[in-house]
Design a protein that fits this description.
231 residues, mainly alpha, 2 domains
Length: 231
């Protein structure tokens, strides 16, 4: 059962809900920290606001809303922003840097403060989301270096394959539905040895997931897919 299905089950089953909140506490803290612009201790009121928001996200989620983590992150961010704004009214200080955001309707809610930089970066949050999504394909994020192409020629082959897949909605849907690389559909369309597809299957799938998903920062490392080339 993937995270979206687990979130749906958690709406009605208390034990699954509690399991999800406990299992993804670090994820919740990372979203809170990114929003607050600095590390948020798990024992803080800000973290508590994040936990409540995650619970709220479970209540409001349905499959039509897409990836649960993306949906939950927006609600957590909104609730943490509300908490920090309320806190600033009492303290008469604004010690955080990322208080602008969107409301639940997707409308911009500006809050002008000096940006001092976030301890938890956008890329770190994207990696958290990517790790979970890749697990649905049986791929460990930390194993990717072992499956990445090393030689110049192999890199070129993989780049050609990735570009071809990204240009084809049919192949992208195949990967999403089958959780596998459509090797037979690629051979004959791209000049690449079959053994390259087999050996670097996980790397290629991961690249497609990043480029087709909401991973703006991570996709920057795959600029070749937009027509550029790596040396």
């Amino acid at each position: 059962m993937n995270i979206n299905e687990r979130a749906m089950s958690a709406k009605e089953q208390k034990d699954i809900r509690e399991e999800l909140i406990k299992e993804y506490q670090n994820y919740i803290i990372s979203v809170c920290s990114k929003t607050a612009g600095g590390f948020v201790p798990a024992s803080s009121d800000t973290a508590s606001a994040g936990m409540l928001a995650f619970n709220e996200a479970i209540d409001k989620y349905d499959i039509s809303k897409g990836n649960f983590f993306v949906f939950a992150a927006q609600i957590i961010k909104n609730r943490v922003i509300d908490h920090l704004r309320a806190e600033s009214r009492y303290n008469n200080t604004i010690p955080f840097s990322a208080l602008s955001g969107k409301n639940d309707s997707g409308e911009d809610v500006p809050f002008d403060v000096e940006d001092t930089g976030a301890a938890v970066t956008d890329s770190a949050l994207e990696i958290t989301l990517l790790k979970d999504e890749l697990s649905e394909y049986g791929i460990s994020f930390f194993d990717l270096p072992d499956f990445s192409p090393k030689s110049y020629k192999t890199k070129r082959h993989c780049q050609d394959v990735i570009r071809y897949i990204i240009s084809s909605p049919v192949l992208i849907n195949f990967i999403k539905e089958k959780k596998a690389l459509p090797i037979k559909l690629i051979l004959g369309k791209v000049t690449v040895p079959e053994k390259v597809l087999e050996r670097h299957r996980k790397y290629i799938i991961a690249a497609v997931v990043i480029l087709d998903g909401d991973y703006e920062n991570l996709s920057g490392y795959l600029s070749f897919a937009k027509g550029g080339a790596e040396d």
